[in-house]
Amino acid sequence: MIRTAFTMLVFVTFTILCGLMGLMGALIGLKDGTGSVFDWAMRIWGITATWASGVKVVVHGRENLDGAQHIIVSNHMSQHDILVLASVLKNLKFVAKNELARVPFFGKAAASVGTVYIERQNRKSSFDSYRQAAEKIRDGACVVVFAEGSRGFNYSLRPFKKGPFVLAVHVHAPIVPVVLHGTREVHPKGKLRVKAGKVDVHFLEPIPTEGLSYDDRNALAKTVYDRMAALLVSEYGVESPNWDPRKTPIAREKNVSN
Predict the structure, then answer these.
(1) Region class of 211: left (phi > 0), else alpha (psi between -120 and 50), else beta
(2) Is residue 125 pLDDT above 60, yes or no?
(3) Going by DSSP bridges, is the β-strand pair 175-181/197-203 parallel, antiparallel, or unpaired?
(4) pTM summary value
(5) Element (H, E) at 163
(6) Distance (Å, rounded) from C-alpha 227 to C-alpha 174?
(7) Residue 59 has what DSSP assignment?
(8) Which residues have C-beta within 8 Å of that of residue 92, sequence separation ≥ 6?
(9) Which of 64, 72, 159, 168 is most buried, by CB atoms within 10 Å?
(10) Cα separation of 116 and 114, whole Å?
(11) Closest among 181, 212, 96 to 143, alpha carbons compared
């Protein structure tokens, strides 16, 4: 309980401080980008929260982040996934569920540092959000998407949403698949308690999208899913079900590119 209480204290304190940095920066019209006040606000927030949690972050494959702007597609197990990625990535922007936008102060603060909110039950709104994410990628940001859409209770992968892959072929940004392992033990879904521990972050080899079209979205999603599933098997012995993106219903996804 001491660890949990300390983590919550630090988290709330730095959410306020870093949120104010972002809000003030937006108010006076500061430029966004790597090394900006918005970048530093996000990174300080992630670093302090993971430190308070007693999390040791071990990064594998950092060289896979070199080069062009990326779309990060990650698995999602815990609220700590966001904090861990914020602590190790530069100029990142999250695509997050719209419910977070309504959280007092936090919603506006997160938006000020570049978070894009997506209303998953409203297709038109969701693809408008992906268009916003596309603009951020073109401006040099690294956009993080949790393709499963929500947190899970175990490390086995669940079916991916299609939006991130339509976005990727639209902006021709390479996808870097990311596998997080250890965050479930630190802060499991549905639990308040926080426990110190090790979190491994695996950045896999980028998957290029140059030359791909909307018709390639299913094959791209399948490639990303299979590579992440293979890593989970080889490193942790975690099996994921075989997933066929063609059997996942989706409607009006072409709106991303309109």
Answers:
(1) left
(2) no
(3) antiparallel
(4) 0.88
(5) helix 163-171
(6) 14
(7) E
(8) 42, 72, 85, 86, 141, 142, 143, 144
(9) 168
(10) 6
(11) 96
Q: For tokens 């896979």, name the residue.
A: 64
Query: What's the pLDDT score for residue 258?
Result: 39
Torsion angles phi and psi, residue 164, rounded to 5: -60, -30
Polymer length of the chain = 258
CB-count exposure of residue 84 (10 Å: 0-12, 13-18, 19+): buried
For residue 123, give the nearest of 251, 258, 23 by alpha carbon.
251
The domains located in the chain, with CATH, are 2-257 (3.40.1130.10)
**pLDDT tens column, 213-256:** 989 999 999 999 999 999 999 999 999 999 988 876 544 444 44
Whole-number Å distance between alpha carbons of 109 and 9: 18
β-bridge pairing 175-181 and 71-74 = parallel
